[in-house]
Amino acid sequence: MKLISIIFFVATILIASNECDGLEHGSNYQIFPLRMKSGLGGHYIPDVSCQSWRLGVEAHNVINWKTVPQECETYIGNYMVGDQYRSDSKTVNREGYLYARTLNITNYDIWVFDVDETTLSNLPYYAQHGFGVEPYNETAFNAWVESGVAPPLPETLKLYNKLVSLGVKIVFITGRPQKQRDITAYNLKQAGYYKWEKLITKDTSIYGGKTAVTYKSSERKKLEEEGYRIIGNSGDQWSDILGTNTGLRTYKLPDPVYYIS
């Protein structure tokens, strides 16, 4: 009981000492210390660590991970199907449009989009597979891809339509293999991406065993050698926007479900 009283007393002093009316800055606000990682009675708060894990993933500090931590399944699921995921996507895509409209668009300007979790969403699939907690199952995922029913990411579709209206040409570069090109083209059109300059799928005879960074850098280089100017480059993986020939601006969409190097 004494220990609890002391903790409460110290916390009260900290809050009081950190309150600031901000008058010296011409504003009125209060500053409070950050919430402790443990709850009342020292109980662990799982969501705090899961939020930190997701931040590490999006900042590319947590890398080469294979699956979402088991204890974070509920947190990641709630994030993906809740308002925050779409809000985060909206912020990224909005910045892309605000940038694009400042440019004098030419006939050689293109915007590079990834496909999975950038233009098309596999959320219906991952909702049935633990939101990334389950290890990747190539057979099951390919069956989902072949169904051709992946919905669009709404905020990316909005950016796509705005870019097309500005006269920007669209190029898709996906890690999907060439044998899935036709179903990917079908799915994109069904989802509302009705026109594009190029749809580039992965030639495994050339890029088999190589990283996504190597593959996408090489394909972007080819585009620039053909005379195109990459004004924007959007992807959900860091490997979509790292490497060479990344374009004038890059845009990282949220994806705490899987990692591709």
Automatic annotation (TrEMBL):
Function: May function as somatic storage protein during early seedling development.
Signal peptide span: 1-22
Record-linked InterPro entries: Acid_phosphat_B-like, Acid_phosphatase_pln, APS1/VSP, HAD-like_sf, HAD_sf
Name of the protein in question: Acid phosphatase
PANTHER family, alphabetized: ACID PHOSPHATASE-LIKE PROTEIN, VEGETATIVE STORAGE PROTEIN 1-RELATED
Single GO MF descriptor: acid phosphatase activity
Gene3D superfamilies per UniProt: HAD superfamily/HAD-like
Record's keyword terms, sorted: Glycoprotein, Signal, Storage protein
Alphabetical list of CDD domains matching this protein: HAD_VSP
Source organism superkingdom: Eukaryota
Naturally occurring in which organism (per UniProt): Clitoria ternatea
Family according to the record: Belongs to the APS1/VSP family.
